[in-house]
Amino acid sequence: MSHTKQTEPQADIDELAREHFYQVLYGRRDVRNQFLPDPVPDDVLTNILHAAHHAPSVGLSQPWNFILIRNPELRNQIYSAFCQANDEAAQMFEGDRRSQYQSLKLQGILDAPLNVCITCDRNRGGPVVLGKTHQPEMDLYSTVCAVQNFWLSARAENVGVGWVSIINKNKLAGLLKLPEGVVPVAYLCVGYVSEFLTKPELELSNWEKRKQLEEMIFDDTWANRKG
Amino acid sequence: MSHTKQTEPQADIDELAREHFYQVLYGRRDVRNQFLPDPVPDDVLTNILHAAHHAPSVGLSQPWNFILIRNPELRNQIYSAFCQANDEAAQMFEGDRRSQYQSLKLQGILDAPLNVCITCDRNRGGPVVLGKTHQPEMDLYSTVCAVQNFWLSARAENVGVGWVSIINKNKLAGLLKLPEGVVPVAYLCVGYVSEFLTKPELELSNWEKRKQLEEMIFDDTWANRKG
Fold it and tell me: To which protein family does this belong (chains A, B) (predicted)?
């Protein structure tokens, strides 16, 4: 298994390995439309979860958990919660933008063979966690690092992932029976795909444009834009 | 350049590429002690920033900016803000735990040749952003995805990164002259290293243990722990 690598001495990353790494990083997509029903094998899922679990975490607190959601009835309830939020969201856009919003497919809750909720336990590590003393949101940010590791590792395994954020989190927490202090951070649809698109779907559909990196960089302070 | 890959048709990731990806992912460390003074070349830094900029973002809003901090005077001020927060933090631990905390080096602000603050513009994309309507924190989470892409890409370039969270964010925002609505998400120390440790420093120093993945997984709801 590749993840035994962690205990071997660390070698430099060579050019080929770097190319391969970027192939995964730039090949990652937010998948909504291309899910296939084929189940994700246990060993593949374990690789992805193991990668997520090796994300950085504040004070090594590892505040995440992984809820693997396959039950069809539960997924129907979650899908209903998405639909309600999505209808509310559509009303917030005006005119052409609203009809374009309504034409977009923004989730694969029922199409993907697996849904995964990655949660954050706000109390993990006790009341004083190294690195969280002045930024209490660091446990949430650590959990997002685990989400991004999950997403990239899935791409490395040729598995697609889509993040569903159009849902009421309290409702989701209730459906997943999360205890007090545990919050959902990411609700992910997970499965093999017919294809990985070459660009983000929102870019291909002209919803938004890719910004120029050069315009996003400053030197020393916000007063000195580089680009 | 590797990042031109994004416009080519997407091929499956093969076994060798996957191994290489995991070599990067499991080789990433939170660096505090091993920074070398050698500057990070511009093309290498551009590769890392480009990778960060290709993180997923809610509604493709790309809410991040990158502040490249090299000015020694400014870094001294930021280091002072860290020291103040770190002294406050130490007082929150008791007995042996406090002395152990005080013995840990938790940043490389002055040692690393480059510091990078990754910020989130809470107003990017206007008042209604697709996917942010029901989870307003999604722009912060997108920014953390960019941080994790930055971190992993740096490892692929054999560059170390350490995230400093022991600092007052309002003070940091003031020093970096961030405008209203732009918040610091991650303050990163960046540079080549004498070595990448085989395990997290907090694990090697017995501050915290790695948890078992099996205990972190649930089926369908929190009521069904898998492990």
Answer: Belongs to the BluB family.
- In the DSSP assignment, the letter for residue B66 is E
Give the pLDDT confidence of B140-158 residue by residue, as tens digits: 999 999 999 999 999 999 9
- DSSP category for residue A65: E
Residue from A103, A130, A204, A209 to probe the interface with B (highest B Cβ count within 10 Å) = A130
Q: Does B225 touch chain A (CB under 8 A)?
A: no
Q: Mutate which of B18, B43, B119, B180 to disrupt the A interface (most A C-beta within 10 Å)?
A: B18
Q: CB distance from A78 to chain B under 8 Å?
A: no
Interchain proximity B2–A24, CB inside 8 Å: no
A90 touches chain B (CB under 8 A): no
Note whether B198 and A7 are within 8 A (CB): yes
Domains along the sequence of chain A with CATH = 29-196 (3.40.109.10)
pLDDT band of A226, cuts 50, 70, 90:
confident
Alpha-carbon span A62 to A120, nearest angstrom: 9
Q: Which two tokens stand for residue A16?
A: 């080929």
Helix (H, G, I), strand (E, B) or coil at A113: coil
Helices B42-53 and A15-27: crossing angle in degrees, nearest 10, is: 30
Taking CB atoms and an 8 Å limit, are B13 and A156 in contact across chains?
yes
Q: Which of residues 101-140 of A touch B (CB under 8 A)?
A: 101, 104, 106, 125, 128, 130-135, 137-138, 140
pLDDT at A59 exceeding the cut of 80: yes
Q: Are strands B160-164 and A182-191 parallel, antiparallel or unpaired?
A: unpaired
pLDDT recorded at residue A8? 59
Tell me: pLDDT of B6 over 70: no
Smallest Cβ–Cβ distance between A65 and the set B163, B203, B216 belongs to: B216
List phi, psi (to 5°) of A84.
-65, -50
pLDDT tens for residues A87-122? Answer: 999 999 999 999 999 999 999 999 999 999 999 999
- Coil, strand, or helix at residue A114? strand
